[in-house]
Amino acid sequence: MSDTDFVNTRVEGNILIVEMNRPAKMNALHPPANKALGEVFDDFAANKDLWVAIITGAGDRAFSAGNDLRYQAEGGEMFPVPSGFGGLTNRYDLHKPVIAAVNGVAMGGGFEIALACDLIIASDNARFALPEPKVGLAALAGGLHRLPRQIGLKQAMGMILTGRHVMAEEGKELGFVNEVVPQAELMEAAVRWANMICECSPASIRCSKEVVMEGLNTANFEEAFSKRYDGISNMLKGPDFIEGPLAFAQKRKPNWSGE
C-alpha cells in the first residue's frame, strides 16, 4: 500500500493506520479520495498480516467534514465508488475490525464513516452531526440507518431531524463513542484499543464481527442464533483453534497465525 495525494497509510505491527489527507479542506472527501480510500481498504481486507485498521484525519481540526460540496458545486467529476464514502460506508463484507479515531469535526459523511467503523475513539474536541437537511440533502451514506440502530430511535431522530452538533462527551453518553481522550492522546488511545484486539485470535475476531453484524439482519433471536455463519466454520478449521487452548495449557502467549 502506498500513499496517495488524498490518503496516508502506515503499518504498526498488525495494525494499519489510515489517514484521510485533505487537511486544507477539513478532510472533506470527493470521488477521487473515496476511490483511494476504497483501494486502501480492499488491500487491508486481503492482507492476512493486517488484523485491525484505524482511520483518522490529517491535521488537528477535522476527522472529516463530509462530502466536498465545493468540488461538486464547481463541476468536479462525480462518479460512484462501490465501497462508498471513505471506502467504508457501502462495505458489508469486511469482517476485520476498524476503529475511527475522531480528531475534531465529523460532519455528514465524516460522521457516517465513523458510524461504519466498529469502535469510535474521540478527542475531547470532537464534534458530530448529520447536518445534510440544512443544505437540502439527507444522510444517505448509511447515517439514517446506522445511527438509529446504534443509539435508538428517539435519540437518533433528535440528531437527524435537527442537524444539531453533538460533542464527544455527549456522544459517549448517547452510546456511539467508546472513549473520549485529550486530543494529544487520541492516537495512543486508538492504538491501545487496536492492540487489545490484536491480543485475541484474528480468526475469532473476524468470526465474532461477522456473527454480530449478520445476526443483526435478523430480528428473531432464535433465527439469528441458528443461522450458519462462514466465520464459525473458518474459525473451527483454522490453526488458531488449536493454538489458543494449547497456549493456555502451556501458560504462554499464543502465536496467532492470522489465518
Description:
With about 260 residues, this protein is α/β, with parallel strands linked by helices. It has two domains: about 5-200, 2-enoyl-CoA Hydratase, Chain A, domain 1 (Alpha-Beta Complex), CATH 3.90.226.10; about 200-250. Helices cover about 40% and strands about 15% of the residues. The protein has eleven helices and ten strands. The chain has helices at about 30-45, 70-75, 110-115, 145-150, 155-160, 170-175, 185-200, 200-215, 220-225, 230-235, 240-250; strands at about 5-10, 15-20, 50-55, 60-65, 100, 105, 120-125, 125-130, 165, 180. The strands form two sheets. A six-stranded mixed β-sheet has the order 1-2-3-5-7-10, with helices on both faces. α3 packs across α4 and α8 (about 200-215) packs antiparallel against α10 (about 230-235). It starts with 6 loop residues before the first strand and ends in a 10-residue tail after the last helix. The mean pLDDT is about 95.
